[in-house]
Amino acid sequence: MNSSVSHLRQQRGIHLPYKHAAQASGSTPQAHSLARRAGRPFLFQCLRGLLFNHSRMLWIFPFILLLASGCPPGAKESHIIETLPDPEWKDLISDVRIGESDEIRFTNAPVTIEQGNELKIACQKLRVLHFDQSNLNNDVLAEIFSLLPELDQLKLTGTVDNQQLETLGKYASQVKVLNLPNGQFDDIGLTSLSEFTNLNLLRFDSPHVTNQGIQSVSKLPKLKSLHLINVPITDDSLKTIETMESLQSFYLDGSQCTDEGLSELIQNRPELHFHRNQLHLQQDPNSHQH
To answer: Rounded CA gap, 238 and 261, in Å?
Structure first.
């Protein structure tokens, strides 16, 4: 191929394969360099031929996807965190009965009457019980708790009224941790707390409790941690809480207490670990980052 033909093809955008370009340009190093550049577009022509050949496309397409993604198949899936399903009620009951567990934590749905009745059979070693008791009446709850003598921690996520709180005081007064996040009891209902002589931690939510109800809380002789949620107490209750010598931790989320009253509390009880709406006060000597 003479130089005039090569020049004409370059003007028309026609690129030569490497060896022909080298022959057309001479055999010097500079000629080989120019020929190599002239031959590069031929690779794209080959690739184009592969892409439009359907039989070759079948095996080359996965590799094209691999190059486009920039990572091997399955790499992205490795970052996915699988959430395990909640344990079945029957499995929790079975584990307690055969002695493999002393805890039942089942709050994803209210237990049925049939499920509640299963707590009455061979669950005497149960120590921790978290469940939604909304479907169980007071008679059923009374019978359940009377058959759980070693119950130590109790969380009821269903609504708890005065009558249910009274039932707890009669049949579950041995518990050390009591969590009632959906309370609808009032000051009268809180008088049942007098039965919980071993209570270490009390957490409850109730919009019906006033300063008078906190008087009942202050009489718990072993209470170390108190968490009040949306309880409309005022600074008067803070003065009551200040007198609770056994109290080590006090969390207050939503109330009518003032900054002045809370500042006075932590000033008079500097050792008390206090949070308001999950945060320390700026002037709290125990303040730290969470």
So the answer is: 7
